[in-house]
Each structure stands twice: as structure tokens, then as C-alpha cells.
Amino acid sequence: MFATFITSCFRNIKRHKGFSFINIAGLTLGLTACLIIGLFVRDEKQYDKFIPGSERIYRVYQQSEADVTNIIASAPPTFATTLKQNYPEVEKTVRVVGINTSELFEAGNKKLYQQGGLIADSNFFDLFPLRFRYGSPIQALEDPNSIVISAGMARQFFGNQDPVGKEIIMDKSVITVKGVIAENQQFHLPVNYIISMSQAGYKGDFMQSWQWYPFHTYVLLQKGANVQQLEKKFQAYSKPFLKGEGPSNVPYFQPLLNIHLHSSHFKYDISDRGNISYVKALTLISIFILLIACFNFVNLATSQSVQRAKEVGVRKTIGAGRKQLLLQFIGETVFLALISMVMAVAATYMLLPSLNHFTEKHIQFSFLIDPAIAFLILAVVVVVGILAGFYPALVLSSFKPINVLKGNVVADTASGKTPWLRHGLVVIQFSLSVLLIISAIVVIGQVNYLHNKDLGFRKEQIMFFPIKGEALAENYESFKNELLTYQHVVSVSVGYGFPGDMFGDGMMTVKEKPELGPIRATQLMVDEDYIKTLGLTLMAGRDFSKDKKTDESTWIINETAVRELGLGSSPEQAIGKTLSWPTWRKSDSLKTGPVIGVVKDFHFKSLHQKVEPAVLQIYPQAYSKIAVKIKGANLEKTITGIKTLWTKFSPDYPIEFSFLDESFTKMYKAEDKLKTLILLFTVITIFVACLGLLGLAAYSAERRRKEIGIRKVLGASVNGVVILLSKDFVKLVLIGLVIASPIAWYFMTQWLTTFSYRIDIKWWVYAVAGMIAVGLALVTVSLQAVKAALANPVNNLRSE
User: What totals of helices (H) and strands (E) does the chain contain, helices first?
Assistant: First the structure.
């Protein structure tokens, strides 16, 4: 019986090649998209699940009492010690500090910069038992002169040898490799190497600070502990210590399993962050594509039912019951879904390397060795087959054999009545398609806006690099002066806090406004050429001057700082006002001086964030980067000259440079990928929808071929016939546009709110989406309509 069923399936596929191809192609595309997105989503949701007791681990972060959107991932060092000593609910605590700079490592004759470093408490691996390739995590960080490195870093310096016990030089200090972490672990912290707190010099009284917070603090709670109660108790305890001079920060506990996908808006985060909104959006898109493919099947199968009416009549005459026919037709659909799934699995295997390259992941499609994935694939086949095949099977099995075998016309819809199901499914298909088209237009517009918005400074042709080596740190002025002798070097600035790079902050007080209290502001440590090098616009006052030593006690602020610090309604009114700031080097020392200038607001951070109050000051103790403005001509020659000069001042450190515009491009990597993905899946969605429309148009033309023949004999033109066959489909697409537009407006408006600076959704977006959808529908339908209109009416009417 099974063999007969298979034979019947293949015979039906062969007899209706066109419809079978459209069904299989549509389902294959839909299932492939679902598999690829499913693999990505599954990978995103696996982060940190391998850690024992992960459901009891929390990260302690801070949220501003004054601004609930100001969430800081890091915490003071005392959070960990206080929680461990005073709260029995806490079993373990661990502190981690990210190393934001590239550090020079040397082993043998290899000398390379490495990023992705962590400084951690010695019990780090007790809480996070990462898998080791070489060595053991037990007491790996107990020795102050120890380091644990990644497998990738180990290959760079030691090849395929076991490096445990070997020495490596980090920033001219000799340390011993204690272990090598295995690759491809879905851990929220990107780990290239880890050193201990004592190795980094993190000890002493400042580890008791409540106002200094570079630490990421994790706690493992006792089994059965109530995290909400602990959170409230710790908030109450820490409030007087966190009050400080400004608005208070409030500590909160974030579940470890939420960090990767739910921290995209956190400041000072060092974790590998995904975005739950993008994951949800991709999941919805995959469902849309699969639904459209299923709707295609329902539409085509019901429209094709007339051609199988005689088959049903014969089967019923020889004794087949309706239940048996239902099982047969649903079985055929499941069989088609199985063929499509086999092709989709093959396509996924071929596309997986490209997916890994695009997402920078190591996703594996291991359904042959993972029973859960294999079962899920089979379940999808059965569910899709049943969902897509149930209604067509119901229609086919309902035909009465006496009517069919007498030669009466049999249709899935009564004569003169609108096929509401078929039209409804077409409307849903194109509603989803238009929804994605509008979303794609908005995403493309916003991403282009991010890359092209005027940032308030000139980011092009600015090369910058960190200061490395004592000789360069002590003689950066001489290095700068020699650079300025180069023909194509326009200007040079030394500082800390270049746009797109690292920043510090601090509490500013205004002498003339004591009632305001301290206000947090971003600190940009600059020299006298910072404004000129970046091309900032001075709105009032003057720039720093080398000729005035007193400028080391003065300030230049941005327009936002004028407003936030209450310095007046215009930049000119801020000039001369006195600001104070507790310096970083000595917390008890206060730097006080007048505002001498105001610069136009410029975007030194991502456009996700509003421009914050910024204070520019001369503070040589913090200088760590050099920015060089270069003319476009002879760029390679100029860079070669800068490298040569670098070697003269810092022979022990290779130069490591980048360009400022590259830093801003990297900020929007997630949005660039979203743009690519939504474009790709929009194209797939439209293609699948148009496949179904092509099949329906072919069916419609076939059903009306005699009508078309009569119309042509009576003088109808080709254009008239094309319009006749196309207008109903165009109406359905327009209805889809009306339905999709408000839904798209809502979701895209919500997405745009994640950016402080964004585009507006103009009316023409909907018009363009409608034109694209209608145009594609017309082209698709016209392919069949023109073919039907050009057919010889004699052939269509010969049987009459």
C-alpha cells in the first residue's frame, strides 16, 4: 500500500509539473530560510547555558536614579566584597575588568598586539568553568604572574604545541601561561586572554571605593535564594555610599542568561552583545516566509482541484471513503514537504559557511548527531504538510462522484461566488510582503542616515593610534612637532577621548549655580590642536592656546553642556562661568577655572545615544592617543613616513593605527547586518509570493481560456485581455498594502525609537512599497495573461 501511495505521489507530480515545481520551490525556500534563521536564533539563545548553575548567576549593574535610560553595566569594586561578606544568600562573587586597549605580547621572535583581554578575580573559573584545551582551570589565576590564553592566541604564538608552563611577555613583563581555553564556547564575555587582579595591580585602598566602577560584578546565589529580596536589601544598604556628589546610582541584578540578548542599551559593557529585538524580527520573518509558502500550496492545490475531480470520482466509485482520501491527499502534501525539506537541508549545508562568515559565528548544523534537531525537522515536515494540505484535502475529498462522472463542472468555489479563502490568502501573502518591503526601505534609510549624518566634525582622513612605550609617552611633543614637518600632515592632536574611542566622565559643579549640584559630563582630555584637527565649530569664545599656560585650568564645553549645566540660553553667556571637577589622579584635588569657549555639539558617540554634556580640558596625565589629519594625496607615502618616525620614538613597539571613519563604521555593524538580512529575506518573501501568484494566474487563464477566446473573436485587444486577468490580483495586492501599512508604521516606529537620531517615515515610503508590490504582481500575472491573450482563439473554441 505504501508503494502504491508513493507511486501515486510521483505520478501526480509528473502530471502537474508546473504546479509541483512552484509548490516544491516555494516550500524549499521557506524551509531553507526557517532553518538558517532557526540555527542563528538557537545559537543566540544558547549563550552561557553550558555554565553549571547559570540560572543562579546574576550580574550586578547600575541604573541612574535621575535617568532610567542611563544603565551602566559596570560597578564599584566594593559590590562584590560587600555582597559576599554581608549576605548569606550569596555563595560566590567574581569581578571582571575589560582591557580596552591593545597590549603587546612577545614569544620567541613573534611580536603581536592582542585585544579582548580580561582582568579577573582568581576564582573566575570557579564561577565560569570554561572548557580548557590545555592545562586546568583549577587555581589557574592564583599566581600573580600567570595568564590564561585562548586557543586562537596560543596558535599565533606557539603553533600547535602545548604552551602551558611557557613564558610570554606582556607589555615587557614576563608571565607564565597556565592554561588554554578551548574555542567556540558560547560565553557572553569574549575572552582572548585573562590575567589576575594582582597581576594588573588592582589592590589596596581604592578597591574599597564606591564611586569608581570599572568592574563587572557577578554573584552566584545559594539554591532557593530570592533575588528580588536580595536586590531590595542591597539597594537600601548601598544607597548612602552611592549617593556621592550627584544623582545616585541604584544597583540591580541581571540574570546571566539575559546578558547576551538583553544588554544592547547598557553603557560600558564588555560582553558580546546580541539584540533580542533583531532575534524576534528574524524569527517573525522566517514564519512569514513559511506561511507564504504554505498559503501558496493551499491556493494552488484548491485551484487545481478541478483537474483531480475525476480521480476523486473514480476512487470513490471503487470504494474509497472520504477519510481514506483525506489521508491520501494530506500524505501527498507531507511527501512534498519532505522533498522540500531534504532540498532545504542540502541548501542549508551549502549556505552555512556563508552564514558563519557573515555572523562571525561557528554555527554547526548537526542534525545527524543531535536527536533534538532531527526530531524538530521531522516535526516541521509533518506540521507544514498537514497545515498546508488539510484544506485542499477537505475540498478534494468532498466532491460527489455522480456529478464528476456525469461530466458536470466541479469547482472548489460555487459558480458566481468569490473564492474568499484563495483571495484571503493572497491578501495575507502580499500584506506580509508589503510589510517587509516597507521595513526594508525604513531600515535602509536609517542605516544610510547613520553613515551619512553630519557628526559635527570631519572624520575623514584622520589616522589615530595609541601611545606605546615610555620614550614616546615622555616625548610626544617632539613626535608631534616632527610629524607637522611632513608635507601632507595637516595637523596633529594628542589626547584621550577621540570620537568613536574610549571616554571618561566626571561630576562638574558650577560656581554660579550651586543649587544645581554636581552634574555628570563626558571628559575629553585634549591639547591645543584637538578642535583644529577634528574640525569642530567654535560657537563662542576661543580655543586653547599654547601661549597661555593658564589654559590648563580652563574649560571648553559643548552646547549641550551649556544647557545641562545651567550656564545660560546662548553659548556667549557661558563664557567666563567657573567650573570645578575632582581630578582622576587625586580624588581630593579640585580643578577649578573659567569656561573660555563653546563648541557646536558633535557626535563623539553612536547615534543610538543623545549628545551628552562634554567638557574639553588640557590634562596631559590622561593622554593616550595621537590623531593625525592627513591630506588625501600620497596617503600611502605619508603613512610610511609616520611608521618610520614611530620606529625612531618607539622602537620596541610596532605601530597600530586605524582611521576615525572606520571606528564609526564599526559602531553600526549590527544595523548593517540587519539591512542585509532584511533585504535578503524581503526578496525571498516576494519571490515566494510571486511564485504562488504565477501559479494562480496560470490557473485563472486556463479556467477562462474559452472566455478569452470569445472576447478575442468579438474584437478584444491583447491589452484588454491582460487588464481583465490582472485587475483582480492588483486589487488584492492593494488591499494587502492597506492592511500592512499601519502595522509596518507601528513596528518600524518602535525600532527607530532605539536611536536618539533617526529619520522620519515619510508618506512616499508606503507609495514606493505599493508600487513595488503592484509592479511585481503585474509583471508576474502579465506573464500568463499575455500568453493567454496571444493564444489562437480557434484552439480555445475548437471543442465548442
Answer: 25, 24
